[in-house]
Structures are given as structure tokens and as C-alpha cells.
Amino acid sequence: MANKEAFKKFVKENPQLVKYVRTGEMDWQKFYEMYDLYGDDDTVWKDYLNKKEERAEQTVASTTAGIGFPEIVNFVKQIDLDSIQNGVNSIQRVLGVLQDFGNKDEPKKETYKPRPIYKHFED
Questions:
Q1: At what angle do helices 46-64 and 16-23 cross, to 10 degrees?
Q2: For residues 8, 53, 66 and 69, what is the CA-based torsion angle, rounded to 10 degrees?
Q3: Is residue 35 domain-shared with residue 88, that is, in the same domain?
Q4: 42-63, pLDDT tens digit by residue?
């Protein structure tokens, strides 16, 4: 039981392990077996802990470089105009329905006209 709690603490200290599980590269059982066999201070974890640091450094480097014209062009190329148009059309339909509900006037009440005594069924 103590080893299980120590593994939970190790995972909390190294949240980058969660990414490997979410992407499907590893699973918790394999991580636990590695932890059980080798502990937390071993070269086995360098592959999983350093990759995250390298990814973070690459991300920081790419974001600090700034956004230039080529990045903007690539972003615009990736936009799917058909899906945007479909979204706008559905929003317009919803707004139209809401306007119809808001614009409905109360039906005009017809004044009551008593039926003549001699007329029964629309004769």
C-alpha cells in the first residue's frame, strides 16, 4: 500500500506523465510497474521526464519568436470556410426563430356576435 501512495505522490510531482497516458503512448499499469521496479530516481524516467521539458522549451521558443506573416497565412489556410458558413447559417436560423417568437402579436379578439335564433349550423 505504501508503494502505491508513493507512486501517486510521484505522479503528482511529475504531471507530464499524464500526457503520455492520455495520448496512449503508455498506461498507468506500465508506469506503476516501472516505478515499483526502479523507483523514482533512475534513468528509466529520463525518457519521459526530459521529453516534456524539451517540448516545453520548444513551445517557449516558438512563442517567443513571435507571430509572423507565414504563421498567419498557415492559420488562414487551415480554416474550413464551409464549416464556418454552416455555423453562421445555423445561428441565423436560431435568431430568426427567436425573432418570430418575439414579434408575435396577440391575436386580435373578434367581438362576440350572438347567433340568430333561426340559424343553426351555418345554413
A1: 100
A2: -100
A3: no
A4: 788 888 886 544 554 555 455 5
